[in-house]
From TrEMBL:
This is Peptidase M10 metallopeptidase domain-containing protein. The keyword Signal applies. It comes from Porites lobata. SUPFAM superfamilies: Metalloproteases ('zincins'), catalytic domain, PGBD-like. Keywords: Hydrolase, Metal-binding, Metalloprotease, Protease, Signal, Zinc, Zymogen. Residues 93-146 form the Peptidase M10 metallopeptidase domain. Belongs to the peptidase M10A family. InterPro entries: MetalloPept_cat_dom_sf (IPR024079), Pept_M10_metallopeptidase (IPR001818), Pept_M10A (IPR021190), Pept_M10A_Zn_BS (IPR021158), PGBD-like_sf (IPR036365). It holds the Pfam family Peptidase_M10.
Length: 147
C-alpha cells in the first residue's frame, strides 16, 4: 500500500466521522431547542422525537430521524417544561386552506404595528402556499395562535 493510499483512506474516514458528528451535533441542538432534552436536568432523558414526528421508533439517530429534524418548522417547543407533548405535530398538513389567526400582543410594540407585521408575513405565505389567513376575534376560534 502506498503512502498516498493510506493518507487517502485516513482522509475518507475522517470525512465520514466529521459528517456523522455534524448530524449528532445538529440532533442534540434540535432536541434541546424543542425541549426533548431539558437544559435543567442532567442524566438520561426519555426522548420521544420519533413518535411525535410519526416515525418508527428505532432508538437510533437514523436517516429518517435526521431528515425529519432538518425539515423547516416553527420555532415553538414540541414538549413543555414538564416533558408533556404539546398539541401540534410536525410534518402534518392543514386539513383546510382558509386559516384564522390570533395575535397575543406583546408589550414592546404598539398593537397596530404588531398586527401590521403579522398581516404582511401571512400575506407572503398566502402568496406562495395556496392558504388564506384572516384574523380571529379570540384565541379559541384561531387555527394559529401567535405569542
Amino acid at each position: 500500500m502506498t503512502l498516498f493510499s493510506v493518507l487517502f483512506a485516513v482522509f475518507l474516514s475522517l470525512t465520514f466521522v466529521f459528517a456523522e458528528d455534524d448530524d449528532k451535533t445538529m440532533a442534540l441542538k434540535y432536541l434541546s431547542q424543542y425541549h426533548y432534552v431539558s437544559p435543567a436536568r442532567s442524566g438520561n432523558h426519555n426522548v420521544k422525537t420519533a413518535t411525535f414526528a410519526g416515525l418508527p421508533v428505532t432508538g437510533e439517530l437514523d436517516d429518517a430521524t435526521i431528515k425529519q429534524m432538518k425539515k423547516p418548522r416553527c420555532g415553538m417547543p414540541d414538549v413543555d417544561e414538564d416533558g408533556r407533548a404539546k398539541r401540534y405535530k410536525t410534518g402534518s398538513k392543514w386539513s383546510k386552506e382558509q386559516l384564522k389567526y390570533f395575535v397575543e400582543h406583546g408589550a414592546d410594540l404598539p398593537h397596530s404595528t404588531q398586527d401590521s407585521v403579522f398581516e404582511k408575513a401571512l400575506k407572503f405565505w398566502s402568496d406562495v402556499s395556496g392558504l388564506s389567513f384572516s384574523k380571529a376575534s379570540n384565541a379559541r376560534e384561531a387555527d394559529l395562535k401567535i405569542r
